[in-house]
Amino acid sequence: MRTLPSYHPPLAGREGLRLDFNENTIGCSPRVLEKLRALDTEDLARYPGRQAVEAAVADFLKVNPPETLLTNGVDEAIHLLCQTYLGSGDEALIVAPTYSMYRIYAMAAGANVISVPMDKNFSFPVNELKERITPRTRLIAIANPNNPTGTVATHDQLRQLAHAAPEAAVLVDEAYFEFYGRTMLECRNECGNLFVARTFSKAYGMAGLRVGVLIGDAEQMHAVRLVCSPYNVNAVALACVPEAIQDPAYLAEYVEGILEARARLQNMLTASGIQFWSSEANFVLLRVGSSKDDSARFVEHMRRRGILVRDRSSDHGCEGCVRITVGPREHADRLREGLQSTIEECGIAQGVSRR
Q1: Does 353 score more than 50 pLDDT?
Q2: Which of 7, 71, 218, 233 is 20 to 30 A distant from 339 in Cα terms?
Q3: Which of 256, 307, 333 lies closest to 19, judged by CA?
Q4: What is the DSSP string of 109-131?
Q5: pTM tops 0.70, yes or no
Q6: What DSSP line would sit under 246-292, residue for residue?
Q7: 12, 18, 20, 23: CA torsion to nearest 10
Q8: Measured between alpha carbons, how far is 311 from 292 in angstroms, rounded to an integer?
Q9: Mind listing the domains of the chain with CATH numbers?
Q10: pLDDT of 220-277, one tens digit each?
């Protein structure tokens, strides 16, 4: 445990426009708020039962209930897979850069983590990953779209991985699915070792309620359930999930606004000569300098304008980079004004080639 890296998200003092944690910046469906207001003391006094809500979510996702497990955010889904499939001396494969908790949970289970760098343009290193598969490989975790890059792996590349490592659990973390629109769920019957994770934290605007979904082969999911608490998702979250999935119009309108704002942001960065990576998520990674000092300075200047963005300079290959969450039109307009002023104030070089 002493060797585990720590992950301390900078959650303190987040005053301003929150474009730093890829959250929904306008909030959840009004139906969810209405349900919250209707909860009473009895709802809170009882232990929560997730089975009925799991069945509703399974129907929504067009999968079978035995293939579906609600979790305390996607973080718990990752943790459960690591506890189920990893032990001392096993190996877990991840790419770099990616979500930090894959490494931490795998190490906590006693596994050795093999990190495979992405290509210089952050394209998915499928061949390099396949070369690192060994008889000890028991877990491969892939965020698709990836965080913090917003880049994606193709269906064919993910299938190749699943077939190349039949003794490993292959997790495809689709936390940003709604902004990408492509899923590996259709491949779950073809690849029995494939797991897909979804979340209600991002597009649905329910990060504070902590609800994720893990989907996989029914037999494999039975094994995962053995290490899962029967009360892992709280009663408030379970009451709100059905309301969220029954308001597709609200979600569709929100996602449409984010995709439009993302395109506008990327067009602005192109016009300004700022290097960035084309994103399929609700954020964009851009390079504002060549060092941690450059990115920290940029973040501080944006904070002074009341806009929070995330310094990603410590991630592999992201020196001098920041990640900016995309909000709807009114937030995008405010971002554009602050961003242009900060670019000029920080003297970011023009003409940086876009990747």
Answers
A1: no
A2: 7
A3: 307
A4: TTPEEEEEEPPTT----HHHHHH
A5: yes
A6: T-HHHHHHHHHHHHHHHHHHHHHHHHHT--EE--SSSEEEEE--SSH
A7: 110
A8: 8
A9: 17-24+249-346 (3.90.1150.10), 30-245 (3.40.640.10)
A10: 999 999 999 999 999 999 999 999 999 999 999 999 999 999 999 999 999 999 999 9
